[in-house]
Amino acid sequence: MSECVVPTLTSAEVVASKSLLPQGWKADMSNLAGLDLTLCATELLRRTTSRLPQDVIDALVKGRDAEEPGSRAFNTLNDMVRNIILADGNVSPLCQDTGSIIFWVRHPFGFSQRAARKQLRAAVMEATKRSWLRPNCVESLSGKNSGTNMDPFHEHHPAIHFEEWDQPHIEVSVMQKGGGSENVGAQYRLPDATLGAGRDIKGVRKCIIDAVVKAQGQGCSPGILGVSIGGDRVTGWERAKELVLRKLGTANPDPKMDVFEKELTRDLNTLGIGPMGYGGATTVLGVSAEEMYRHPASFYVSIAYMCWSSRRGTLTLAADGQPSYDL
Amino acid sequence: MIRLTTPITEEAIRQLKVGDEVLLNGNVVLSRDMGHKFMKEQKPEWLKPILENMVIYHCGPVVRKNPDGTWTFVAAGPTTSIREEPYQADVIETYKVRGVIGKGGMGKKTSEGLQKTGAVYLHATGGAGSLLAERVKRVVDVKMLEEFGSPEAFWIIEVEDFPLVVTMDSHGGSLHEIVAQQSQDRAKALMA
Q1: Model pTM?
Q2: What is the ipTM of this complex?
């Protein structure tokens, strides 16, 4: 049980050979309004549901290797690595909770958001049909499941954030956000008398420690935290979640925040919660924090908790229409 | 490593202690939020022979229907158990359930139920959906699929060497309580 499993994933060539996209497929970027993202977005979901980003795998392996060989924490992290290899090889979902689907689309002028919304919805329906995604969208009160992953009332699931930018290429990022980890996310309002947390960086730190202790193993630790400091109740949450997209191990562009993240990560890993809450030294894999504006009367700290199976990926359609995936 | 096969006797369950590693074999019954609310509020008789001396698994699987009408489990890791805390002890007592598989652990009420009836809480690795689906030998039956939808239905599956850890036993022991207490103490020191 205690031998170190080496996480060798399927090579990029093999992944490409299983692609839904016909060989040589290119988007016609001269006709942005007429683009069809359905197929390339379905391919993105095929990859994100079955493959973890390399930085997440590296962090899990680093955590495992720091645990006592043969301990429950070590064995659990080893099983996580085994699971990563299996899901990749079988092209099957890493986790049965394939999450809520959140897209971020950045595009040049002339691109049709209305058309893209339809296409991304079609991609999610197709991935659901192929059992790459579990039908995870139910009516709140009755619990009735449409079976398609489509919001039965409006068009709020899958969630799609659009942004027009001044670049010639298109980026489509996706996150599969599991329900267990979503449930342990938290939003604090400073000052918080119970925690003795004031409106400063020390207060922010206390909120984050409190959230991680409350989460225990229930968000499938080791977790990855996205933390926004400020904003309003909506913009704070939205940014916190987006921050989870940041690659682990990359420095925060704000040097002070970078130090804060590193010290906090080290401290959180002394809590002893460990993988799945079994005890151990690997409680979080990383923290990504950012300071935002705020209203003078409000001070929110929004903490998005992502499980160890941090399924995220980006499709890029270059200026010449060439597709590429970061998974 | 302890090998157990369902149905399990109360005597065998009473011997298990927190920290024991178990490989489970035989049939287990999947149930989560809708199923637990239904079992507590309606106490359907037809579930009694299905659940007596058996193990409930908190799991909403990804399933694939094969061309011949049979089902395959594609991903089948545990879901967070604490959501069933209001129901679990009642369900264990009503149906004489001997084990509950999930993740994250459960609270005091469930612990009391485990002690009273003679049952344990078995922890599976969350997120290990592919790994655990490989240990599902076959889908035996499914109940309430139409009514609840696939993630919530009562799937009855046969498992082989399903890897689990006892984290709450029938004597009041709970690994979750110990880890929670220690981490709360450490958090206090970090916040001081």
Answers
A1: 0.95
A2: 0.93
